[in-house]
Amino acid sequence: MASIQKIGASWRVQIAIRGIRENKSFPTKREADAWAARRETEIRTINNTPLGTRHTLLDALRKYADEVSPTKRGERWEMLRLNAFEQHALPLKKPINKIVPEDLAAWRDSRAKVVQPGTILREISLLSAVLESARREWRWIDQNPLRDVRKPKEPKHRKTLISRPQLKRMLRQMGYVKNKVRTITQAVACCLLLALRSGMRAGELCELTWDRVHDGYCKLVKTKNDTERDVPLTPKARALIEQMRGFDTELVFGLKAQTLDALFRRARERAGLSGFTFHDSRHTAATWIAGRMQSNGIAAQQAVFDLCKMFGWTKIDQALVYYNASAADIAKRIT
User: Fold this and answer.
1) Domain coordinates of the chain in residue numbers?
2) Using H for helix, E for strand and C for coil, what is the string for 293-333?
3) What is the pLDDT of residue 54?
């Protein structure tokens, strides 16, 4: 019920209904009564409206960006993608509980005209996470409409290896000189060499701090799988790290992941090369390290377990994704 009081020459009305409190003053009691009745009706109507009708897909994207993405390791990528969603052919202004699978299938098909299946799969995964938050936590919807949308076929895993001649050209282009790291480009070269010796990802290398480097191994606190991992360091790998002493007081390489990627791509282009990325160093490392294990007489089963431990794989079949020895190389080992 509204409370109406005469204060001086005006009438002050206060309403408190379903957690909403408002007050306003009017010159006459009739106006105060009319406003109170109208606002109480409006508030009751709003509260009886399903949450999903009150919120749009755009509201969900922005709420997820504000509340969920900042808690995740991949925040930067998610924020870029969530912002990009606002330019896509998505039903952004549609009440979220009115969105149907056909709406999202149309979006998927429009994306298929401009990006690869792998990109679409990552976008579907993120959009599904937004809709799941709307379903499970915010109670805006009863079902996730993306569950009934067919996904593109999973792309084949990359099998690209960085060849030794390509590596030499890259190092030459980046001006790498052993034991003389003075420039940021030379730091990228040293980072690449350690990636090939350890199998560490770009983000893991860029976030490696001096206090995490120990004799014979380094400890990774932030990994893709959100689990700590100890990466063994051979004497040559440790020597590469020691080359970086004095370059940065906290970070071993003094690089951000986006800087590493940009400088790597620029060096590759200037070297007249193409077809491989920094992440392909992980495939290359798995193949080279497995070969060295075999040469050192390590049993096959033990080698697989060691690789999984070193690379942070939780399933043995992940080794097959990254280990890309050629048929010719395998033939040499069995003859």
Assistant:
1) 3-48, 54-148, 164-328
2) HHHCCCCHHHHHHHHHHHHCCCCCCHHHHHCCCCHHHHHHH
3) 81
